[in-house]
Amino acid sequence: MERSGGTPALAVLLASWAVLSLSGALGAVAGPRCPAPCVCSTDATELSVFCGSRNLTQLPEFVPNGTTALWLDGNELDTVPEAAFQNLSSLNFLNLQGSQVRRLEPDALLGLGALSYLHLQRNQLRSLDPRTFVPTPGLAFLGLDHNLLNRLEGSLFRGLGHLWELNLGWNGLAVLPDVAFQGLASLSELVLAGNRLTYLQPALFRGLGELRELDLSGNALRVIKVGVFVQVPKLQKLYLSRNLLTAVAPGAFLGMKALRWLDLSHNRLASLPDGAFPGLMGLQVLRLAHNALSRLRPGTFQDLHFLEELQLGHNRLGQLGAGTFQSLGQLEVLTLNDNALRVLEPGAFSGLTSMAVMNLSGNCLRTLPAQVFQGLGHLHSLHLGGSCLGHLPPHAFAGLSGLRRLFLQGSGVAAVDALSLQGLPELLELDLTGNLLSELPPELFQGLGKLEYLLLSRNRLEALAPEVLGPLHRAFWLDISHNRLRALPEGLLSPLGRLRYLNLGNNSLTVFVPRTPGLQHLWLEGNPWDCGCALKPLRDLALSQPGVVPRFVQAALDADDHQPPVYAYNNITCASPPGLAGLDLRDVDEAHFAQC
After folding, report:
1. Which residues pair with 264 in a beta bridge?
2. Contact (Cβ atoms closer than 8 angstroms) between residue 573 and residue 584
């Protein structure tokens, strides 16, 4: 997963608020030794003092000597004076994040020999004295992210041999001393994301033999040279996304046999050298999306035998040669979306015997060569939206016997052959939204007996053959809205006994007789309805089951709660007879249908 800056800080704040709420609910231990603005809580032999978000401008007095956890987050402290916690020898957890701290005096942490967790993130610290952490040799976690640090003293972290996580992300660090991390023999996770680093010297990570995760994303690195990561043989995750990388030296990752995750996305890589990833036998995830790659050399991925995910979307790839992915027999996810692919060469995907998800959307593919997907029997999701296909030939998806989801939305498809979808017995979802289809061959869906979702909206369909939906006995969802249908043939929907959602909106329908008893949602908006006797069954359904044919529903939005609600309307507006034009069918008086 990609990192999200500041998530640990948010988690700590939420935990603080949760415990405060719980303390208030259960009755806080607020004896005479608890500082007046704070709340104290005991759990077995541990004493926690919560002074977070109290608008404090100085540290509280008389914090109990036996305190094991002290929360001072969200205040206005400015400065932490010398020996501020000298009587708290049992303190294991100290949270000062988000308290506008500009200065930490050199001996501020004096007496905190038992401290394991120190949160100093989201403050305004610009520098730290080399003696700052001398009194806390037992630190396991140190959070310094989201400050204003622009330099580190070489000996700042000396003596922190038990430290396993260090977060220096989102500061202003441009250069790091060679010895910045020496002595951190137990360090497992190091975050340097969101700084201004332009260069990584070979000695920088010396001594970090236990490092498992290194985040260098969001810096200004331009090149990765050989030898930089040779000192971290146990590294499993390396994030280098959102830098300015234009080149990766051959062998830059040599020796990183434990590496499982490598993120090089959102850089400026125009090519990858032969041997870019030698020896990465254990690599499982490789992200190269959002670069400027125009071609892939044969053998680029030859050593990545256990790769499971390869992201190449948003590059400039114009073609894929036969055998490009030949060695990736374990690959399950391949994204090639939003490149410049026009043609897929036969054999382009040979060797991908474990492929499960393939994204080719956003490429102007003009044709699908015969047998191009041969050998991809395990593929279950194929994304081809936003292509320029125009026409789907017979057996276009031959070889995809296990395919379950096929996305062809917005691909310029104007014609399909009666056999275009043959050989897809496991297909569950077919999306043909936003194409140019004016008709469907009556035999198109033969063999798709497991199809559940069929999306045909925003095409140019003027009529449907009575038998076209006949094979779709398991269809659950059918959307044929935004077409040009004038009528639905008798019996069209009769085979769809499991249909629950039907959208007929924005066509040219004048009459519809509901004969699908299991429907849960029926959308009819935007048709020129003829509100004569033929629509009486529809009126009866709409009035007796308003949940099935609602007048409107409130749309679900991600916007904030202050935005006015947005509604989707499901009007059944009469276009005729003239006396009822503009009236909703549900509002037509019962007397109008008395003679029906």
Report:
1. none
2. yes
Closest by CA to 224, choosing from 273, 286, 290, 280, is: 273
- The first and second tokens of residue 82, run together, are 């010398």
Max distance between CA atoms of the chain, in angstroms, equals 96
DSSP percent split of the chain into helix, strand, coil, nearest 5: 5, 15, 75
Residues whose CB falls within 8 Å of the CB of residue 109, separated by 6 or more in sequence, listed in order? 84, 85, 115, 118, 132, 133, 135, 136
Q: How do residues 260-276 score in pLDDT, each as one tens digit?
A: 999 999 999 999 987 78
Q: Quick one: 61 exposed, middle or buried, by C-beta within 10 A (0-12, 13-18, 19+)?
A: exposed
Cα–Cα distances in angstroms (integers) from residue 440 to residues 311, 333, 520, in the given order: 35, 32, 26
297 confidence band (pLDDT: 50, 70, 90): confident
Q: How far apart are CA 385 and CA 406, in angstroms?
A: 9
Give the DSSP per-residue string, 458-485.
SS------TTTTTT-TT--EEE--SS--
Q: Are 400 and 376 in contact (CB under 8 A)?
A: yes
Nearest to 188, CA basis, from 220, 142, 145: 142
Q: What is the pTM of this model?
A: 0.89
Place of tokens 């000062």: 96
At residue 580, φ and ψ (nearest 5 deg) are -110, 0
> Is the pLDDT at 549 greater than 90, yes or no?
yes
Torsion of CA 343, 346, 350, 352, to 10 degrees: 40
